[in-house]
Amino acid sequence: MASSEVNTIVEIPGCSPVAGEVRWDPVRSLWNGGMMLTALLCAPVLVSWGAVLMFLLLTGASLLLGHSVGFHRRLIHRSFDCPLSLEHLLAWVGTIVGMGGPLWMIRTHDLRDWAQRQAGCHAYLSHRNPMLIDAWWQLHCRLRLRHPPRFDLGKAGADRFYRFLDATWMAQQLPVALVLFAIGGWNWVVWGICVRVSLSVTGHWFVGHLAHRRGPQSWLVHGAGVQAHDVPWAAIPTMGEAWHNNHHAFPGSARIGLYPGQSDWGYRFIQLLEWAGLARDVVLPEDLPHRAALRRAPDDDPRPAPIANDLRRA
């Protein structure tokens, strides 16, 4: 059986990832829909070279520093250590990506991670539905499990700054918008807020959908009802997160791109932090405990992954 141990999840008798109802989430639906509608209607009219360049730089920086490094590799998986002030800064940058606050992101990630390790889980948690239905569910709805597990968010849950970000995650766009307006007017606000948030949120869903449906596989997790795939074309825009098959195999690793040629800007940034003395105890696949459930995929490329010998023979 696949391991059911996932960071913040506490299993209680009878908890199940299968039975539940998908319901419309008005707050997130209006947020995501409003950002997309504004981007579609206003961005073509308010386009400029400066606005587009700013959009590309701000989107890349927020996804790299905030979503990939701050939220995913630090807060969720604790794959490296850093000063709390830096962690807070990275978490704020992750919040302005526009998907949600840090505690919401931890709960959302860990519930899906836990569910996918079980023999079966709800279609919402496995991205099992056709693309358009899955898009509606993920961007406009929420899942209410009938028998959910319990969460223990530990120090993060008690952190006042994270609780503040969770309560004000939408309002965190306002200071960014004011700076953008002061520099470039409404062009910069539309491209730097609406287009950026809409593309980040929709892109996150789209790559996640593909990563659980189709694509290359190097590893299988025996007993898990949902297996992951890599999405190679998305490696650079996701800062290395698209090597999702590797991540399912070694979820606690700060390095996700394991093979030569697998771009992983998130890991490179962590290495930069380590070089500057701002990161330590960086976890790599060879530092993780052996997983008996881990298997090589039957059609795996024969190139060796840079991991310990006991895992290479899995």
Describe the structure.
Helices cover 51% and strands 6% of the residues. By secondary structure, the protein is mostly helical. It has one domain. The strands form three sheets. A two-stranded antiparallel sheet has the order 1-4. Strands 2-3 form a two-stranded antiparallel sheet. Strands 5-6 form a two-stranded antiparallel sheet. Helix 2 (49-76) packs across helix 4, helix 3 (84-95) packs parallel to helix 8 and helix 6 packs antiparallel against helix 9 (173-211). The two termini are 15 Å apart. The model is unreliable at 308-314 (pLDDT under 50).
Number of separate domains? 1
| Percentage of β-strand residues | 5-15%
Helix fraction, binned, reads: 40-55%
- Identify the overall geometry: globular
- The whole-number mean of residue pLDDT values reads 92
Largest sheet: 2 strands, antiparallel
Number of helices: 12
Radius of gyration: 19 Å
- Order of strands, main sheet, comes to 1-4
Instruction: Briefly note the structural class of the backbone.
Output: mainly alpha
Task: Please tally the β strands and state the result.
Answer: 6
- Report low-confidence residues grouped into runs of 5 or more: 308-314
Order of helices and strands: EEHHHHHHEEHHHEHHEH
**Terminus-to-terminus distance:** 15 Å
